[in-house]
Design brief:
It contains 4 helices and 56 strands. By secondary structure, it is mostly beta strands.
């Protein structure tokens, strides 16, 4: 128990010592003495006008004060009543320098009083230098040079420099600066006001600048920025973000080593309303034959400049009623020239009409370290971080960039045809021009906007190689792909992303669409020959899209509905035309058991229809469970039609198709062979019996009874002999040899039985039209029909006439199974009238 007690005592002793030190610090006495004629005043005041919760005062001659002013020739001794005066008070030291009545104290500017003579408060040293209008003053900053910051920004060490100038009696703020920058000198005319802000804990004891005399500069100010190597500098116009003074001139001088290149880019700017003159920027570039080079603020600024250059901002005479604001924030980037900077690329868009090419930076996050810029230069001088080349002209471009992978190109081209009579036989090859492929930057997107006559024609997209739809289960891993989307303003429909190497042969879209070729790897340049897509016009159809799919034998084909992330649009329909090879069986499988859609109005349906037999299955996607895996031997359709779904209950389905070879089971083959032998034996025995019976006795004709006909005797009704109102035509009297006539076939398979009317499903070819969905208001339970099971007919009316056999018989017909045809050589049952 001794050790914990000892530890507690040590902690308590440390706290007491710290408290004693704070009390001693709070009770420390300070003395400020200012010589006569120094022009220095010291002002201590509360940091906040409102008194703090825990009062802290300046104690001088036993008086408690919240403010202390020390003038030249005065001496003041004081203490603070609290231990942390830096949280309550600030200190301002201001020195006035009059260069109009006497000589200016040129040279290094000292801190007076020194930091050691002042209390540890947040301090602001201010030098207010007044000079004649024809006299230029220069502030020179020794290392480290200054870096300009914008509103709301701060300095890492808390040390800031605020510099202002004068225009007559008006003070103009030049800017706020931190250390570690490129600004080495600032020249001003008619005086300068320099403020150095030091935090209370900073022990700096020098001002860091000197004042020199210069001749008239005939402008507001000149800021010199020196680059010793690669780097960047961000600079702002005077009074930023406020308005630049009216009809003033401000200049920046940039010192750049000869082996480096400089580029200027405007980050933000505003122009005012001019009555006379014009706001502009002027460049003086050594070696240029057109100095000064004049640009508007809206123009692309020069780049790829070698050596020193000047940039000037010129204001105008503003409208007195609505002056507006002129302001500018720009960046100068200095870097080494690259090999690409000496190459010129020609992009010929003179034969294009509706096409634009944009080269811009790839979105990449950079750290705090210096990163050289990437510029695109037109005619090697007008450089910018992004450039847009328009159709109808031939462009010459070069690059000033250390790493061209930081840039990419995006192209947009519009292909339209508005006359449906002319468009019907027209097609477009969607391929990237060679002039774009030869550029040293990656092609990111090439978008074709396809426009068709509204409600007259639709589009057919046929790729050079079959496509695969990108899904989470089977992602595309190629160097490029296609993004297909509808561009109809009233509908946001994204069909999906597709890449070569799949099973989709064609994509049909109803209305205006966009096809975007997107590259994913630099290897696209080597695989560009695989890029081929043809767009043509086809007759108009009402579905949003139709996909023609021929599954691959070796792998699954994953397919999903459009707008996967947001759900299929309301009241839209999409179909898949899936082909099945003759020697294969297709298995259709859905990813989940239920669709999850909840309809606000209308109904959502799915139709699976075999194309040859017209066998059709209809499923309600809102109520029913999605079908289990189903097998299809013939080509079939999958149609999905949406309702107006409720928010959060969208329709999105994922399914896949696999192929397996058709194989015959050995047991089935053996059974079929044995069954065929038994059938032949029974057929021969039956023929012999029939012939023997005919030779013994010629019986009457035999009738066939249809058990599905009403056999009830009508109550006191007269038989109506109207064929259309009864089923008298169902029965026919035929020869007994015809009862088994279907068994009497020759060896070639031809039948000798007479022709009879039977229902046979359509076996001919089926067109490209998908199955029509049921009406949206259809609410009865869905039924499933097949080719072998036609839809049930309604039961006969109760007043239907009973049928009897046409030949007499001596027996009575009892209650028997009516589904089995009755064959009886005896006469029919006699009934009483």
């Amino acid at each position: 128990m001794a050790r914990p007690a000892c530890g507690f005592s040590a902690a308590l002793l440390g706290a007491l010592l710290l408290g004693t030190a704070c009390l001693l610090r709070g009770a420390e006495a300070f003395e400020i003495a200012l010589p006569h004629g120094s022009g220095i005043t010291v002002h201590i005041r509360l940091a906040s006008p409102a008194l703090p919760v825990k009062a802290c005062y300046i104690i001088m001659s036993r008086q408690h004060m919240t403010e202390l002013l020390v003038k030249p020739g005065e001496r003041r001794s004081f203490t603070f009543s609290c231990s942390n005066p830096e949280k309550h008070f600030v200190l301002k030291i201001e020195k006035s320098i009059d260069c109009m009545s006497g000589p200016c104290p040129f040279g290094e500017v000292p801190l007076q009083p020194t930091t050691a003579e002042l209390p540890a408060l947040n301090r602001t040293f201010i030098w207010d230098v007044r000079a004649h209008k024809r006299i230029g003053l220069e502030l020179q900053f020794s290392a480290p040079r200054l870096r300009q910051i914008g509103p709301g920004e701060g300095c890492e060490d808390g040390v800031t420099h605020s510099i202002s100038g004068r225009i007559d009696a008006t003070e103009v703020r030049i800017g706020t600066f931190c250390s570690n920058g490129t600004v080495s000198r600032i020249k001003m005319q008619e005086g300068v006001k320099m403020a150095l802000h030091l935090p209370w804990f900073h022990s700096r004891n020098i001002s860091g600048f000197s004042i020199a005399n210069r001749s008239s500069i005939k402008r507001l100010c000149i800021i010199e920025s020196v680059f010793e190597g690669e780097g960047s500098a961000t600079l702002m116009s005077a009074n930023y973000p406020g308005g630049f003074p009216e009809d003033e001139l401000m200049t920046w001088q940039f010192v750049v080593p000869a082996h480096l290149r400089a580029s200027v880019s405007f980050l933000s700017f505003n122009v005012s309303n001019c009555e006379r003159k014009e706001e502009r920027v002027e460049y003086y570039i050594p070696g240029s034959t057109t100095n000064p080079e004049v640009f508007r603020l809206e123009d692309q600024q020069p780049g790829n400049m070698a050596g020193n250059f000047n940039l000037s901002l010129q204001g105008c005479d503003q409208d007195a009623q609505s002056p507006g604001i002129l302001r500018l924030r720009f960046q100068v980037l200095v870097q080494r020239p690259q090999n690409e900077s000496s190459k010129t690329y020609v992009v010929d868009l003179s034969q294009e009409r509706a096409m634009s090419l944009t080269i811009e930076p790839r979105p990449v996050r950079h750290g705090r370290r210096f990163v050289p810029g990437c510029f695109v230069c037109l005619e090697s001088r007008t450089c910018s971080t992004n450039v847009t080349l328009t159709a109808g002209s031939k462009h010459k471009i070069s690059f000033l960039c250390d790493d061209l992978t930081r840039l990419w190109a995006n192209v947009e081209k519009t292909l339209s045809c508005l006359d449906h009579r002319y468009c019907y036989s027209k097609s477009f090859n969607l391929q990237v021009p060679r002039d774009i492929l030869q550029l040293p930057v990656q092609l990111h997107d090439f978008s074709w906007r396809l426009q068709v006559p509204k409600d007259r024609l639709s589009l057919l997209l046929v790729p050079g190689q079959k496509l695969q739809q990108h899904t989470r289960e089977r992602a595309c891993n190629t160097s490029f792909g296609y993004l297909v989307a509808s561009t109809t303003p009233s509908q946001d429909l994204y069909f999906g992303s597709f890449c070569p190497g799949g099973s989709i042969e064609k994509i049909q879209v109803k209305q205006n669409s966009s096809v975007t070729l997107r590259t994913y790897a630099p290897s696209f340049q080597h695989e560009v020959s695989r890029q081929a897509l043809t767009a043509s016009f086809i007759p108009y159809f009402k579905e949003e899209g139709i996909f023609t799919v021929t599954p691959d034998i070796k792998s699954k084909v994953y397919l999903r509905t459009p707008n996967w992330d947001r759900g299929l649009p309301a009241l839209s329909s999409v179909s898949w035309n899936i082909s099945v090879p003759s020697n294969q069986v297709a298995c259709l499988t859905f990813f989940k058991e239920r669709s999850g859609v909840v309809c606000q109005s209308g109904r959502a349906f799915m139709i699976i229809q075999e194309q040859q037999s017209r066998a059709e299955e209809i499923f309600s996607l809102e109520e029913e469970v999605l079908p289990k895996p189903s097998f299809h031997r013939r080509n079939f359709w999958v149609n999905i039609s949406n309702c107006s779904p409720m928010n959060g209950k969208q329709l999105d389905l994922l399914f896949w198709v696999t192929l397996t070879p058709r194989t015959a089971d050995l047991a089935v083959i053996i059974g079929a062979a044995g069954g065929g032998a038994l059938l032949l034996f029974a057929l021969g025995l039956l023929i012999c019996c029939v012939r023997k019976k005919k030779r013994v006795s010629k019986g009457p004709a035999v009738g066939i009874y249809n058990g599905n006909v009403n056999t009830q005797v009508p109550q006191m009704q007269k038989f109506q002999k109207r064929r259309k109102d009864n089923d008298s035509h169902v029965y026919a009297v035929i020869e007994d040899t015809m009862v088994y006539g279907h068994l009497l076939q020759d060896s070639g398979g031809s039948s000798i039985q007479p022709e009879v009317d039977t229902y046979r499903p359509f076996q001919g070819p089926v067109g490209d039209c998908p199955p029509s969905p049921p009406p949206m208001f259809f609410r009865t339970p869905t039924a499933k029909f097949t080719a072998d099971e036609p839809a049930p007919r309604s039961s006969p009316e109760p007043e239907s006439e009973p049928y009897t056999f046409s030949h007499p018989s001596k027996g009575e017909v009892g209650f028997r199974e009516t589904d089995i045809p009755l064959v009886d050589t005896q006469g029919p049952v006699e009934t009483e009238e």
